[in-house]
Design brief:
The complex is a heterodimer of chains A (669) and B (74). Chain A is an alpha/beta fold. Chain A contains 16 helices and 18 strands. The two termini of chain A are 27 Å apart. Chain B is an all-alpha fold and 74 residues long. The chains are: A alpha/beta (669), B mainly alpha (74). At the A-B interface, helix 3, helix 6, helix 13 and helix 14 of A face helix 1, helix 2 and helix 3 of B.
């Protein structure tokens, strides 16, 4: 299958009809869709997935809401996804339509521009790519963490299907069933009680084994989907701000703010007190200031204290003789004038009082100055308090914004779901182990009964024809199983070889991969042969390398025309946001490997996955390139416009005040 | 569509193909070749009977396989 074009009509975030074309040139077979979260990358992947299978990737949510919301509001009741592709040399159009709740699939073969309907479209499509394998080719790499290369039965079967062994596995089973029927015919023919009992036992076990095997797969699928959901929930939780920590911090700084506000209140009271106390001082200081000036003037003018004392005046009056020698007669004008001098004459007491007044004035000046200083200091402390409270309030605001971004109910719901998923996993794992043991026991018993049957049947007189048919089936089974083992061993050898080539080329460390031939478990080993966890950066590279190797191997088998027993699968590899899950040091090498190993590669990348190393690795291979733009009808306000630079040109990845909420596709120039 | 991919893997695949051919030519006795022809016929039948939506029951499929084997002489 080679994808040519995808057409969406009112599918999810895509309003109206959206058409994109895929790169198909063998030398430039990579198509890249750039877009941030919510821009529609996963919708695109699921459009293809749904069109091909009628189903969705496990992480795809609200699968009942396929019709674009804006279109639905306008009355549209239909959505479709149409995929044009080449299968071999033939061109097809596959369209899946959802109209009024009913899903319809149509397939047309395109000849000379005319479309001719293909009968049994779903069946034909399933032959192009088996529905059970779609998840390997149309891969939601955001969930790569949940991909387990653990060798579960489901993993083994998926891999066998991808490598083309599914059909031969079915043939082996049918040959076993055919043999059992012939053996029953023998039991009836020879009428041997022992043979009949053995065959009854085999038939009884064979009757329950398919259900047990189906149950085992069901448990594995449930375990896989539960693990996948658990990974998604844990990732969502880890991406959310830690509300408990934020709340703890908020409680601490709110307490600090409370203390500071208390201190501020004390300081404000002190300031008010200082203001109250300093007011008379300042008033007195103003008055005293004038008074001091008067005193100073008087002093300068020599009027204060007076240059003569009361003692001197009294002595003049008593001696009736002035200090200049003139007589001062009693009752004379001179005596009256000299007596008047007594009014203003300085005395010791007066001099003392003047001194005291001057000291009081200086005290008033000092005290009022102290008030100003104390008030200044208090006001500075209040300002410091205000600043600290301001800082706290700023942090509280940030916490409030962060907490506001958290949907408390959502977190609580996720936590509950997480606990439920863990409990469910434990239960499923227990049930899985029980059923696996039952299957192993039953398979061993069948082998045992079969040996006993073959031993017993040798003594019985079986008709020649029946004996011949039994012998033919036995020879065929032996032959097919032997050939299958050979091919399986080769396929795993090539896969291991390819994986190790990638790892040797791209990993800084000398790790190598080993695939267990019985369980298909893929192990990453260090130089000492010790197992390296899949959750490491190298483990993630291994997963990408493994997927691309499997897809590449399945495709190359066709081209190489190796005589495998069954037809392999050849399909494009479509990966949603694959590179952001990797350590940056490996992104470029993985991108290069994906491009090199696949016949057609469709990548959906966020800006986080578009590093220089990735763009350089993909540049020679890109044939088509698009930007998914997230358009929102609401106002921009303070929200940022995310930009992305692609080949020197900057693209806006989101727009506001649009006519409606929608994803739009712009071709990269 | 022309093949892409690493040359080394291509060599590995070609080696595997050559290995298989050699095994087929050297190891298989005429009886085995006949077995291979029958096995391939049965695989094609199996594929046709397993097409999704073909509506062939497990029992009917096994019956068809048995009939097909019965019609072959090996």
């Amino acid at each position: 299958m080679l994808l040519l074009q995808l057409e969406l009509s009112n599918f999810r975030s895509f309003y109206g009809v959206t058409t994109v074309e895929f790169a198909g040139d063998p030398q430039k077979a990579v198509t890249v869709f750039h877009g941030e979260n919510g821009a529609g990358k996963t919708n695109l992947l699921n459009a293809i997935y749904w069109c091909v299978t009628g189903e969705f990737t496990p992480r795809f949510q609200d699968t009942h809401l396929l019709i674009n919301k804006a279109a639905a509001a306008e009355g549209t009741r239909e959505t479709y996804v149409e995929l044009r592709f080449l299968e071999g040399d033939l061109e097809y159009r596959a369209r899946r339509t959802l109209a009024r709740g009913n899903s319809v699939f149509d397939l047309w073969q395109v000849r000379g521009g005319n479309s001719q309907s293909v009968n049994g479209g779903e069946r034909a499509m399933a032959r192009f790519i088996a529905p059970s394998l779609v998840r390997w080719f149309f891969f939601d790499a955001e969930a790569i963490g949940a991909l387990e290369l653990s060798g579960s039965e489901q993993f083994r079967q998926d891999l066998r299907k991808t490598l083309g062994f599914e059909l031969v596995d079915k043939l082996v089973r049918d040959l076993e069933a055919a043999r059992n029927r012939r053996q029953r015919e023998v039991s009836v023919q020879v009428n041997d009680k022992a043979l009949k009992e053995i065959q009854d036992a085999i038939d009884n076990i064979e009757a329950v084994l398919p259900d047990q095997r189906a149950a085992l797969l069901q448990f594995e699928q449930s375990i896989a989907s539960t693990k996948e959901r658990l990974v998604a929930v844990q990732k969502e939780l880890s991406n959310l701000p830690k509300s408990s920590k934020l709340q703890e911090r908020r409680a601490i700084i709110e307490k600090q703010r409370e203390v500071l506000e208390g201190q501020k209140r004390v300081l404000e009271r002190r300031a008010a007190q200082l203001c109250g106390e300093s007011a008379p001082a300042i008033f007195l200081k103003e008055m005293a200031s004038d008074f001091e000036k008067t005193l100073e003037i008087e002093e300068i003018q020599g009027k204060l204290p007076r240059p003569y004392s009361d003692q001197l005046v009294k002595e003049i009056l008593d001696s009736r003789k002035c200090i200049c020698g003139r007589e001062v007669p009693s009752g004379s004008v001179e005596e009256v004038k000299i007596k008047e001098l007594l009014t203003f004459a300085s005395t010791g007491v007066l001099n003392q009082r003047v001194k005291e007044v001057q000291l009081v004035l200086r005290d008033i000046d000092r005290i009022s100055g102290d008030f100003v200083q104390a008030l200044g200091e208090t006001r500075a402390s209040i300002a410091t308090c205000d600043q600290d409270v301001g800082d706290i309030e700023s942090e509280l605001e940030q916490i409030s914004i962060a907490l506001g971004a958290i949907d408390e109910d959502h977190i609580s719901k996720l936590e509950t779901e997480r606990e439920g998923l863990i409990a469910k996993l434990q239960e499923l794992s227990g049930q899985h182990a029980v059923i696996r043991n039952q299957i192993a026991r039953n398979e061993a018993q069948i082998k045992d009964y079969q040996l006993r049957y073959e031993k017993s049947v040798g003594k019985a007189k079986v008709g020649a024809k029946l004996q011949k048919e039994l012998g033919k089936i036995a020879r065929l089974m032996k032959f097919v199983e032997a050939r299958l083992t050979e091919h399986e061993s080769r396929a795993l050898r090539i896969l291991t070889f390819e994986l190790n080539q990638i790892l040797e080329k791209y990993l800084a460390k000398h790790f190598h991969a080993r695939i267990d031939s019985s369980t298909y478990a893929v192990n990453l080993l260090d130089v000492e042969g010790k197992s390296v966890g899949h959750s490491t950066g190298e483990g993630q590279v291994l997963k990408f390398a493994f997927i691309s190797s499997v897809v590449a191997l399945a495709a190359k088998k066709t081209v190489e025309k190796i005589d495998f027993l069954a037809e392999p699968t050849q399909a494009p590899l479509v990966l949603d946001a694959p590179l952001s899950a990797l350590d940056p040091e490996y992104q470029g090498s993985v991108a290069r490997n994906l491009a090199a190993q696949t016949n057609q590669l469709v990548l959906m990348l966020s800006s986080a996955g578009w590093s220089d190393s990735v763009s350089n690795a993909l540049k020679p291979h890109i044939g088509r390139e698009y930007v998914l733009i997230s358009k929102l009808s609401g106002p921009r306000n303070n929200k940022p416009i995310k930009k992305m630079k692609i080949w020197g040109r900057t693209y806006d990845l989101n727009e506001y005040s649009s006519q409606r909420d929608e994803s739009s596709v712009e071709k990269v120039q | 569509m022309p093949r892409k991919g690493s040359k080394d893997l291509g060599s590995e695949l070609r080696d595997a193909a050559a290995e298989l051919q050699e095994e087929e030519q050297n190891s298989y006795v005429p009886g085995s070749r006949k077995l291979e022809v029958v096995a391939k016929k049965l695989l094609l039948l199996e594929r046709d009977l397993n097409i999704p939506g073909a509506g062939v029951s497990d029992s009917a499929r096994v019956q068809r396989i048995m009939e097909s084997i019965e019609n072959e002489d090996f």
